[in-house]
Write a structure and sequence with these properties.
mainly beta; 340 residues; four-stranded antiparallel sheet; 2 domains
Length: 340
């Protein structure tokens, strides 16, 4: 029995080293087993960062990068940059495989379509452009915003695009016809983020007015508003199952909201400065965030505990792979790091 206890203590100590956590949170051995099994793949990937901080740096002549996102199959990354280009990267080789050129100003955001065949990007040139992800060729351009377009997202079925702009409007576009099908007005402050709900019927937006608003697309009206943040809300995104919304704010907190009750259910604290992004993993078990405090943090949704902290200077964007095993981050010095 004493020998078994000793072995268990060795295992726990090793796990704690991998997870960078203190023993204080451990209530019983069953909790350790549950947490270990749930995140074993993720932790095994991230433990490399304990030794060398980053496992890969993508090579290329890049300017300030605004965003990075994984492809649906997790084999590629798309980045948007101050050099007015959209770049597609192969994760395995770490090399650029396509560069999409055509924007006339900084490219603020880019995202793969749900089937991975298209890329949508938006820019300070007031346009949204659609690219063939395989050839890198521009195939469509959406015009209508009167100022720079800062965020763009595909609907879950890939048939629509939602965008927000410095013109303080949210617009919904038909991918096939390029037609603007909805416009949401009424904001008096900057809109920082927009995203479709998983069923494609709602849009969530966040703003410098400290609020999160969920919009009914069909009626083009506000469905409800979530209040609680004490400063600018930089991000608000639905969970994959549509039951929750995660938000990040300049008030240094990440909050989880229940969609049905419209109430805050968890508050994740730990960042020492403004939270610039927060998003769920695809299985809704993890939230990844980054902050002006120069850290990327990973959070266990069930417990609200911080799982991992990765330190890197000048972070401007972060994403988590579809399988939850890898993180990509970008920086204003033009580098992209793969953690895993």
């Amino acid at each position: 029995m004493e020998q078994t206890k000793e072995k268990i203590e060795i295992i726990i100590n090793n796990w704690c080293k991998l997870l960078s956590i203190d023993l204080g949170w451990i209530d019983d051995f069953n909790m350790i087993i549950s947490r270990y099994v749930q995140f074993i793949c993720f932790v095994n990937k991230l433990k490399l960062s304990q030794q060398q901080k980053n496992s890969m740096e993508l090579q290329g002549k890049l300017n300030h990068i605004f965003s990075v996102r994984f492809s649906p199959d997790g084999t590629k990354i798309v980045s948007s940059s101050m050099d007015r280009t959209v770049q597609i990267w192969n994760i395995a080789s770490g090399k650029e495989i396509k560069k999409c050129e055509g924007h006339c100003d900084w490219v603020y955001d880019a995202q793969f379509s749900p089937n991975g065949k298209l890329i949508a990007s938006c820019s300070g040139d007031k346009t949204i452009r659609l690219w063939n992800a395989k050839s890198g060729r521009e195939i469509k351009m959406f015009e209508g915003h009167s100022s720079g377009v800062t965020k763009v997202r595909f609907s879950p079925d890939g048939n629509r695009i939602v965008s927000c702009s410095n013109d303080k409007t949210i617009r919904v576009w038909d991918v096939k016809t390029e037609e603007e099908i909805k416009i949401i007005e009424g904001y008096t402050n900057w809109i920082n983020d927009v995203q479709f709900s998983p069923n494609g019927q709602m849009i969530v937006s966040s703003s410098n007015d400290n609020t999160i608003i969920v919009w009914d697309i069909k009626l083009c009206k506000k469905a409800y508003e979530l209040k609680g943040h004490l400063d600018f809300v930089t991000r608000a995104q639905f969970s994959s199952n549509g039951c929750f919304i995660v938000s990040g704010s300049y008030d240094k907190t990440i909050r989880i909201w229940d969609v049905q009750s419209k109430k805050e259910t968890k508050r994740l604290k730990g960042h020492l400065d403004a939270v610039k992004d927060a998003k769920f993993s695809q299985d809704d078990q993890i939230v990844v965030s980054y902050s002006h405090d120069k850290t990327i943090r990973l959070w266990d949704i069930k417990t609200g505990n911080e799982m991992q902290k990765l330190e890197w200077d000048k972070i401007t964007g972060v994403d988590i792979s579809p399988d939850g095993n890898t993180i990509v981050s970008c920086s204003d010095d033009g580098t992209i790091q793969i953690w895993g």
